[in-house]
Amino acid sequence: MQIEDLLVQKDLDVVLGDKLEKMSDANWTGLDRKVMSVICLSLTKNVAFNILKEKTTKEIMEVLSNMYEKPSVANKFFLIRELVNTRMKEDTSVTEHINKLNSILARLCQWALSSMIKFKLCYCYRLYLIVGLERLQRLLVQWDPSYPVQYRSPHIAPPPD
Length: 161
Fold this sequence. Notes:
This protein is 61% helix and 0% strand. The chain has 8 helices and no strands. This is Reverse transcriptase Ty1/copia-type domain-containing protein.
């Protein structure tokens, strides 16, 4: 998670673990509060709303992990919506735009693999419109080795046995 990297950069990652024995309760609470504020300031208002009731950094990180890292219907919806709604901005280079699409697709692929969920035809069609048939077929073979051989492109290597 990028938040963990931010905390490491600011030397605040100690709060992600258990309380240090040599640290007083007051110092630990102050440091925990500081980390909570760094996390809240790095989130959008819509996301920060979901962690308002959490009292410690550990609780916040658990909620964020459940929201964004673990497979869920909400995460699937968010990733697909992000992919479908991504448009190239005028001041963005083609390379940056393709990198953004690849990043979304990688997260979607990771989510699909970890959940063992097959995409429905409409999602595949949307992916096809964005990445093209050959790349979509490669992704489908990665997600599901039982993907029918007759639909595979001759340019795509068969999945390992």
